[in-house]
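Good morning C.,

I know you're traveling, so I'll keep this short. The sequence:
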Amino acid sequence: QVQLVESGGDAVQAGGSLRLSCAASGSIVSIRTMGWYRQAPEKERELVAAITIGGSTNYADSVKGRFTISRDNAKNTVYLQMNSLKPEDTAVYYCNADLTFRSGTLYYTAEYWGQGTQVTVSS
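The tokens, ready to paste straight into the viewer:
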């Protein structure tokens, strides 16, 4: 019923930039919060950045000043602009959405995850 599809992951050198995109599709009524998480090998998944429907943002300290999250509510899409990338940013990046969707005449609230996109930063 709902799907999140990420794109934009790639391999870059330190100091480079990437832009990740995540589009949500399905019978979506509204998306309260959209965010990006990442998981490096042998590490726990961590929040990178999140943005509410009103545009309020939250960033991990490690990415403040380098990453910018934004969203297009009309397209149900969230973006992550990543600048000044460092090798420690290497991880699988996952899109997350806290949303309400419709199924028939019923409405449901749920949290969805994308399949992940690999970002590799070499020194």
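Safe travels,
E.
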